[in-house]
Amino acid sequence: MKYTFILISSLVVLSIACKSPAPKITAMGENIGAEVKSPDPIDMTTLLTQLESKDTVRTQLKAAVEGVCQVKGCWMNLVDSSKKSDQSIFVKFKDYAFFMPLDLTGEVIVDGVAYREITSVDELRHYAEDEGKSAEEIAAITEPEEELKFMADGVIILK
User: What pLDDT score was predicted for residue 15?
Assistant: First the structure.
């Protein structure tokens, strides 16, 4: 009986602790993570211009989803919705607190901090693995890359 109580208690605690917060539905779409207040996003071209003179930019960015981590939705790649730029941006979620749907497509607004960072070969290979790339494609990654990155506090999945 004692072990049954411990088992049930543990399952309850785990189910509460592992559950992502429920998304909030807004007029613009589904808000995941921290609430994106007063959305007024910039585009990729504007962000790139701002990052020429600053190391980090706190902003809201509107962009198109190019890909999502297929393991659990813990990161996504975004591209310029207007196609004025061929630059992509790698987005992670603050404190690993929320995830994106694995089948996410369309446009999003991300709220957080944009920055540039050198990504190691090991990390690039890990992300390639998450994307489901072949062993040959993963082995071909041999150099670190400077990437445009974004740490998102919250995301609106646009309707």
Answer: 41
The partner residues of 146 in beta bridges, in order of sequence, read 118
Task: List pLDDT tens digits, range 36-93.
Answer: 988 899 999 999 999 999 999 999 999 999 999 999 999 999 999 988 889 999 999 9
Rounded distance, CA 2 to CA 27, Å?
49
Q: Which two tokens stand for residue 20?
A: 């992502």
| R_g of the chain computed on alpha carbons | 18
3-state secondary structure of 50: helix
User: In angstroms, rounded to a whole number, what is the distance separating the alpha carbons of residues 133 and 101?
Assistant: 19
Residues in the chain: 159
Q: Please report which residue ranges of 54-132 form alpha helices under DSSP H.
A: 121-130
Give the tokens for residue 79: 């591209």
Helix (H, G, I), strand (E, B) or coil at 101: coil
Tokens of 117: 């960072």
Q: Are 91 and 115 in contact (CB under 8 A)?
A: no
C-alpha distances (whole Å) from 126 to each of 61, 98, 137, 138, 139 are 26, 20, 12, 8, 11
pLDDT > 80? residue 14: no
User: Can you list the domains of the chain with their CATH numbers?
Assistant: 24-158 (2.40.50)
